TrEMBL record:
It holds the Pfam family MatE. PANTHER family: FMN_FAD EXPORTER YEEO-RELATED, MULTIDRUG RESISTANCE PROTEIN NORM-RELATED. This is Multidrug-efflux transporter. The lineage of its organism: Bacteria, Pseudomonadati, Bacteroidota, Bacteroidia, Bacteroidales. It is a multi-pass membrane protein.
Length: 474
């Protein structure tokens, strides 16, 4: 089960115009989704582990990460947007069996994103010191927050090229290597954190006392552990994509630094709306953080941990979304729009079913999910209440996630990005600002649940309208 050969056979059927049965479509969705879901969950587990390790240091340590977390998501999102502008084009070319153009797009992507991430890193480092103050953080958490953000910023270049390589591999149909690298990244993060966060200390192993060395860096140690994990796995992803991938390998290609403007323009059509969306969405998250900040460190910590815990439930949606982008992109590249529509419907409904189940799990086990990350009872109680409010919105959140990925595979990003922004800014933030003074942190999460339900409804309307199929590259 989940064999690479079976994936390749079914993907080849798309490229060669062969008819596919319902079972074959479902098998291909599952074959591509499972590794991607595992990768998404592993990535979130890394944040979960960071939060748990830092949470053991107390609410102030958790708050120092929480105050800048939405900003790190912003810059991480911009790197993803830059990568997807190129990888979606590659999916279309691979679907058309034009591997030479797919490799040309990859080369252009490597050069363009390398330049982009140098600019992004410079901006990050410049704002690292005042950022926690801008976001309303207290003097007791600003120092650690600045250190955490600075270290994260310096890891962006290798993270960007690793994300591009991972995204290219996924759009070629190879979900396994990115998934394995995500698992390795999580394991490395645990190991690095274990030695960097804590002081040298005695540890009992099967009744034997051992002295474990530690750097005692606290919050900055968590950032450094994550950065090192990014670096190791990023280099491995770059090597595999450029050397070992049958569709993307550049080892025998003639390298040219001359811009190929058609590819860059097409990348901009995808990446600019996505980048603007990430900026505005993360800006909205930052505003949300500013709404939560006056509620105190307990609320900041509970909000941060609840967001991390909830991500375990919605990441399966993103995993299925990765499969949707690949399948829709290759189907459109092969000129098979009806097949693209079939894959779109199947992936969206599968995502809604999986996340409905995950929402039930989140509702039942909310106290345990928060409790793993913090010993503070006040934080645990407030975070659990927030998760249980959000659980009801998970199916419609899935509809928004997977339908957006469907649109991305078709090269349709402007209208979906606008939909995301309008929903976030006009509904969530407005309601959150109104509810927070009345209901505290629970009010912020009530606003989130209402907004996600509305957003999912809008995306389902977009899906069934079929307007996303009219997009594409020229």
């Amino acid at each position: 089960m989940f064999s690479s050969n079976k994936d390749n056979v079914l993907l080849t059927m798309i490229r060669n115009g062969q008819e596919m049965s319902g079972n074959q479509k479902l098998n291909l969705i599952i074959q591509l989704s499972i590794p991607s879901i595992l990768a998404q969950l592993t990535t979130i587990m890394m944040f979960y582990i960071d939060a748990s390790m830092v949470g053991s240091l107390g609410a102030r340590a958790s708050a120092s990460i929480g105050i800048v977390e939405s900003t790190t998501w912003l810059f991480g999102g911009l790197t993803s947007a830059a990568a997807l502008g190129f990888s979606v084009q590659a999916a279309h070319f691979i679907g058309a069996n034009d591997f030479e153009k797919a490799r040309q797009v990859f080369r252009q992507g490597l050069m363009a994103t390398a330049l982009f991430t140098v600019i992004l890193t410079t901006i990050c480092v410049c704002i690292a010191k005042p950022l926690p103050v801008w976001l309303g953080g207290g003097a007791d958490i600003c120092g650690d927050a600045t250190s955490y953000f600075t270290i994260y910023c310096l890891s962006l270049p290798v993270y960007q090229i690793g994300i591009l390589s991972s995204s290219m591999l996924k759009c070629s149909g190879n979900m396994r290597v990115p998934s394995l690298m995500s698992i390795l990244m999580c394991l490395l993060d645990v190991v690095f954190n274990f030695f960097l966060i804590y002081e040298t200390r005695p540890v009992s192993v099967f009744g034997t006392e051992l002295t474990v060395p530690g750097a005692g860096m606290g919050v900055p140690g968590a950032a450094l552990g994550t950065a090192l994990a990014y670096a190791v796995t990023g280099v491995m992803l770059i090597w595999f994509a450029t050397v070992k991938s049958p569709e993307l390998s550049l080892k025998n290609e003639k390298w040219t630094f001359a811009p190929m403007w058609n590819y860059l323009r097409n990348a901009a059509k995808v990446s600019l709306p996505m980048g603007a969306q990430y900026m505005m969405m993360s800006g909205a998250q930052i505003v949300s953080t500013m709404i939560v900040a006056p509620l105190g460190n307990i609320a900041i910590a509970a909000n941060t941990l609840a967001i991390t815990a909830e991500s375990l439930c919605y990441m399966p949606g993103y995993g299925i979304g990765d499969a949707a982008t690949t399948l829709v992109g290759q189907s459109i590249g092969a000129g098979r729009r009806q097949l693209a529509r079939s894959f779109a419907y199947r992936t969206v409904f599968m995502g809604m079913g999986v996340m409905a189940f995950m929402g039930l799990v989140m509702y039942i086990f909310a106290p345990e999910m928060i409790g793993v990350m913090t010993p503070d009872e006040q934080v645990r109680l407030l975070g659990s209440q927030s998760l249980r409010i959000e659980a009801f919105a998970e199916p419609m959140f899935a509809a928004a996630i997977v339908t957006y990925s469907v649109c991305l595979g078709a090269g349709d990003t402007l209208i979906p990005a606008t939909m995301n922004l309008a929903s976030m800014w006009l509904v969530r933030l407005t309601l959150a600002a109104h509810f927070a003074p009345i209901y505290g942190l629970r009010g912020v999460w009530m606003a989130m649940a209402i907004e996600l339900t509305l957003r999912g409804t809008m995306f389902l309307i977009r899906l069934f309208s079929g307007k996303w199929l009219k997009k594409g590259f020229k």
